[in-house]
Amino acid sequence: MIMSNCRDVLSWEECQQVSEFLQGFSNPVRLKVLCTLHDHEKSVGEIAALLNAKPSNISQQLKILMSRGYVSKRREERNVYYSIRSKEIYDLLEYLRLLAKEQT
């Protein structure tokens, strides 16, 4: 659905919800974390190694991604694995990437 007039379509509550949801995309580390989870679930250590980052920083970003509903986790004994909740996250990310590219 293409909106011709957002003022008539989105309520203030919906605008707030969308704004909060999109905050998850507002950090480059979170975007990279999402990209690492594209093919399959991974642990904090695996993600940190792929991104050459500290596990504590990755854990912090995963917590934010989980709070926004982008990521889910699965515990297997002592290990925790993270995965993307919905393929539509990647569709949206790709769309945002294309929009950003048009702006440069």
UniProtKB/TrEMBL annotation:
Coiled-coil segments on the chain, per record: none
Name assigned to this protein: HTH arsR-type domain-containing protein
Entry-linked SMART domains: HTH_ARSR
A Pfam family: HTH_5
Keyword entries, A-Z: DNA-binding, Transcription, Transcription regulation
HTH arsR-type domain ranges (all copies): 10-104
PROSITE patterns (UniProt xref): HTH_ARSR_2 (PS50987)
Entry's Gene Ontology molecular function annotations: DNA binding; DNA-binding transcription factor activity
